[in-house]
Amino acid sequence: MGNHSMFSDFILLGLSADPQTQILLFVLFLMIYLLTLMGNMVMLLVIRSDSHLYIPMYFFLGQLSFLDLCHSSVTVPKVLENLLSESKTIFVESCLAQAFFVFATGGTEACLLAVMAYDRYVAISSPLLYGQVMSNQLCIGLVWGSWGLAFVDALINILLTVNLDYCEHQSIPHFSCELSSLFPLSCSDTSTNFTVLLCSSVLHFFGTFILIFFSYTRIVSTILSISSTSGRSKAFSTCTSHLTTVILFYGSGFLSYLLPTSGSVVEMIFPLQYSVVTPMLNPLIYSLQNEEVKAAMRRMFRRYVNSFT
Fold this sequence. Notes:
Elements (H helix, E strand, L loop, with lengths): L8 E4 L6 H31 L6 H29 L4 E3 H34 L4 H4 L2 H27 L8 E2 L6 H4 L8 H34 L4 H9 L2 H19 L10 H20 L2 H16 L3
Parallel strand pairs: 1-3
Antiparallel strand pairs: 1-2
């Protein structure tokens, strides 16, 4: 870490410099974070406690809930702290650690959404072989592969970033540390970093998006081949929750990274969407649109009430 001896911290400019606005934002983000924690923990508890949900689809959903807890907890606590603080600083080492975990959890979620799309394809195209194809060993391997690939990729990027010299202004026009926001602060040659980050983005986001698109192309083709209207409707209903999550995650992510950098507050709306808001919405999406999850929640609530009577 000797390259960072010129200064010990960065300044996260955040969303607003107005004290009254910061208080309102603090209350808003605190509510969002608490709802995120509660919603995803309830989802994990429901999936864990109800034997009716011991199938691959809900195994992956449980992993998504755990991942949303991690992804949100990487950024939101520091955002809350800075909204109440005048200095709004973050140690260089802490900033690099946050950038690593933001990249790792985001990459894992992209891979996991691709895995979930493949799971839906197998369930719809080969329902009789679903349990055999999506075996426990395969499901666990796909999850570990998603985490492993993302963490190795994040480690490669962060090790290259650690070797940069940061000798420009210390201000980061963002509410959190991300790899792309650190490069402009460096007086070293960042061409290699940009190239590696671009390859990683293509692999994790565009690559997994193509896999999801291919899976849904096959899903739509299979659904259209079903003769009955009720059968088509039932088959498509099993995908609506996942499809909604994909649109929220990739839509905000693509807009965040493809729009030109202007330094405005409006530019932070899309990063806020996929790093703060989406982890809160995912449990609601899967609980409101999924009858099995709602039934499992009712059973868990009845067991909880009966335990006190």
